[in-house]
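Support case: fructose -6-phosphate complex. Customer-provided input:
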Amino acid sequence: MCGIVGYVGKEQRCVEVLMDGLRNLEYRGYDSAGLALAMPDEKGIETTREVGPLDNLAGAVGRKNGDFFKVRAGVGHTRWATHGRPSEANAHPHTGGGESGPEVAVVHNGIVENHAELREELEGRGCEFRSETDTEVIAHLLAERAETGESLRKALVGALKRLQGSFAVAAMSADEPETIVAARHQSPLVVGLGEGENFLASAVQALLGNTRKFLFVENGEVVILTDSTVEIQTLWGEPVEREAFEVDWSAEAMGLDGYEDFMLKEIHEQPAALQATLAGRLDADDAVELSELNFDLASPGVERVVIVACGTAYHAGLLAKYAIERLARLPVEVAVSSEYRYADPIGDEKTLVVAISQSGETTDTLAAVEAARAFGGRVLAVTNTQGSLITREADAVLLTKAGPEVGVAATKTFLAQVAVLYLLALGLAGARGARPAEELAEIGLGLRRSPEKVEEALGLLEGRMGEAVGMFAGARCALFLGRGHLFPAALEGALKLKEISYLPAEGYPAGEMKHGPIALVDEQCPVVAVLGEGTLREKTLSNVEETVARGARVIAVAREGDEAAGRVARVTLPVPEVPEILTPIVSTVPLQLLAYHVAKARGLNVDKPRNLAKSVTVE
Ligand code: F6R
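Agent response - structure generated as follows:
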C-alpha cells in the first residue's frame, strides 16, 4: 500500500523515471500521487500533487516546462489513504521547514502509530500542519533537525527514531539537492543500481525499465543515494555491506501487450505462469523434485501443517489443505493471517508453517509468521516476489514464477500458488510414503499437463461468456456453490466478482446452503455452481436442483459435454477434463472470466477496483 520512488542522476531523466516508476507502482494505491523535485540552481524543492489516479499527475506534469525537467533528483509517491481522506492536502510528498532552515520533503509508505502525540508536541512548538496525515509529522521532525544544521542523513535518522509503527521513507532537502536519504522499518524498500544514476522504490517492478540490478534494504537500515554512490548504514551509523542481485523479470512484462486490461492479460498468461512454476520441479517420471527446499520433507519431525495467508492466497491455502490431507495424510489448519497473528496460536517445532503471499509483503502474513516463530514452527514461504520480505523471514521458500502481476485482482499468481502447493502435497506424500508412488506420479503428470488444460479452458470459453454475463444484468447478489475442494474455488469466484464488480457475492459449501443462504435465492441472485467429478458432484447437483426449485437461474462450471449440468443450468461454462484432484485449477478460469466480463459490462475499471490496493502493507 502506497508506492514510493526516488531518483538521483541525469537531467531530463528524473521526471520520466519517477513517473514510470509510479505507473508501475500504481497497483499499490491510486488515491493521489505526487512528486518532489530538487530544482536546479538552488531554487529549492518543487512539489506537484494531484488527487486521483496517476493520469491526473501525468496531466499536471504535461503542463510543466523548462526547469521542471532539468532536475537531477526527486522522489514520488502513489497513495492508498490510511490517515486522511484522498485530497491534495493529504497527498505526498509532504514538506517541512523552508523558513529559518532548509525546506525538506518526504514520501512514506506505512503507518506512524504515535502520530497524534508527535503532532501535539510539534504543534506545541509552533509547527503548522497542512494535512491530516500521519506522515506530515516526519516532515516536520526532519525539518526541525535540518534547521539545526544536521545533515539530511542525521536529521532523518533522528526523526525516525521518534516513530512507532512501520515505514519506508525517502527524504530530500533543499540544502543537499543531489542526495536522497531513505530508510525502512517493516515496509519494503529496494535500491536500483544504474550508471551515473541510482534509484529507490517500494518494489523492483517500479524500475525494470531502468535496471535489473538491485540491493535490498533491511529493517532498520538507511540508504544514502547520490548519482554515483549508494551507502547503506544501520540507524546507528554502522556501515552495511550488501550484495547486489539481479531479477529475471522483464520491463515488457509490465506492459499490456495488446490487451485491454492487465487482468485479462494475466488470465491469459496462466498457462505460461503454470509452465514456469512447474518447470524443473517434476522429474522425467513425474515425481516431485523439490531439492531446492533446504529441509527434508520426509522429516518425521513434521506432524502438522499450518497455512497462513490473506484473500486469494488464503483460498489457495484452503485448496492445499484438501491436497495435503488427502495425499500426505497430515493434519492441516488454514488460518487468515490477520486472525492468526492475534490468536495466541498453538504449535511447536513439529509444525510446518506455510505462509502464502503473492507480494511477500502482506503485513498480517508477516506477523502471522512471527507468531509461528514464537512457538518454534518451521516456516516455508510461497511467494511470487523474489527477495520480498517474506523470503527473508522464512526458513525455506518456494517461488511461484508467474512474473509480475499488475491487476489488483490476483489471477495468475493464484493458479501458480495452487500448482506449488500441489507439488508440496505430492512431495510430502511421497516423502512420507503416504500414497503409492504410481498414484502420485499420475497426479504429477496431470499437473505437468495443467498448462495445456488451462489453455484449453481459455479456448473453450472464448466467445462463450456472453449469456452468463447477461444473467448478471439487474442482479443484486450472487451465490457461488461448490463442495470439497471446489468450495475454495467457489470462494475465489465470489471474491473475484465482489472485488471488481462490487456485487455482493457469497461463496458457500453447496451442502450448507440450506442452513441460511438459500434465503437469498431468487431471479436477481444468480447461482454459480462449480461441479467437479466424483461422489460430491452428485451431491452438488442435487443442492443446485434445490435452488432451481426456488427460482434460481444457474450457471454451471462443468466438464465440456456434461449433460446433467446442462439440465440444471441455464448456461454451462465448459472446462476440459482433468484428474479429479486438479479440477479446481481449470474450474477457476471461467470464474475469473465471469468476474472480469461482469465488471466490464458494468463499465468498471477491473485493474484498479475502488478502495483496494494490491500490496497490503498496513494492518
Ligand atoms: C484478491 C487479492 C487479495 C490478495 C491478498 C493477499 O484478488 O489479490 O485478496 O490475495 O491481499 O495478498 P498477498 O498474496 O500479496 O499476500
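The radius of gyration is 26 Å.

Case will auto-close in a few days if no follow-up is received.
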